[in-house]
Amino acid sequence: MMKFFRKIRQKLLTENSFGKYLIYAVGEIVLVVVGILIALSINNWSEKQKDLEKEQLILKQLYSEYQNNLAQLDDKVLMRNEGLEASYVLLDQIDHPEIIDEEVIYNSFWKIVRDPTFDPIKNDIVGTENLRLIRNEELVRILSNWSSEVYQVQELELEYKKFRTEIIIPCYNRLGVARNLNNALWKDGYSPPEALDKKSLYKFTIKPTKKSLNFQEILADVELEGIISEVITFNQVTNLQSQTLRVRMEDMLKIIEQEIEEN
After folding, report:
1. What is the average per-residue pLDDT within 85-102?
2. Helix 18-95 and helix 222-262: axis angle, to 10°?
3. What is the predicted pLDDT for the residue at 157?
4. Which H/E stretch holds residue 243?
């Protein structure tokens, strides 16, 4: 092709036809420019296709991760709801000490001493060039705010963990119920909600204490009553924050699902 154009250029120069040569030269320049533009366009299209494919992979990964995060969050909310229910049961026992059910009390004691913690899957999207591949601005906004919103829930959970370790457990030890509580937990088989294998029941016995326990006095303990009311507040506030986080994840999953279907 270049040899063909070279022959035409030499012929025009030999014929001393400057006007025709000028038109030819402009035409040749135009052809070169058009060729470059076409090559750039093809290259840009190819790069865009690669980015779209990468975006789809990222979206599918995010969809899977946040589905798991949502399921985990629901598990933690359920545990806190069980703690709330147990707290109200204990308050009812305190308010009506004439009807004492030791098994119910031990079961409730255990449910309020658990400390559910939300530990979502961490992705490396935010803060990397992968974020620019996501075209949906609303999704980018939610992802950018995700870490700070998770931290607000985790901060409350850490406060409760400290409250559990420094206040609830020492109170159980002081009241003398810790051994019987743990024995009641394991003697008939127990599968911790946070266990990796939730289908297996773990069973063993610690045997109850030989010391006599006066449940009338235990339920009359002022500190215990205050602790139970604090447990209610902790769980309610953390669940309210978790609900906000849940809405964020639902919005995120809905957007991701739409973005995947459109492509």
Report:
1. 93
2. 150
3. 95
4. helix 222-262
